[in-house]
Amino acid sequence: MDHFQIDHIAIAVPCLRTSLPLFEQALQATASHEERLPHHLINAVFINGMGVGYELIEPHPSNVSLQRFLAKQNNRPAFHHIAFSVANIEAAIGMLQEKHVRFTSELPLIGSFRRKVAFIHPSSTGGVLVELCEGKT
To answer: What integer is the mean pLDDT of 78-97?
Structure first.
């Protein structure tokens, strides 16, 4: 059985330029990594603060679903998903599928830091979006 460890907490933000300084001040930390992920239609910034990894995600203009999510939050930063690191993502997916857990895609995708990622469908987690990431950042 694969071991799941908390990797990061993702916060959706309408604008990284205005949100990043607020999070850096609140967490008393600076951004450690920034990445444009056009295949996921987001820009992402990682912050390690107070012993926890945070990912701020900003939608590309064509990311209608994330823009809609933010609109429901009055265009304020909001919890988006929690991510767990696993040693072997295929093994973790297989183990969870045996327990009838649904995923948003059939195969892992490439996410931040070029890691394999997979998202557990919120219908399998009581409404929470969960990301699995292979390896550590």
So the answer is: 97
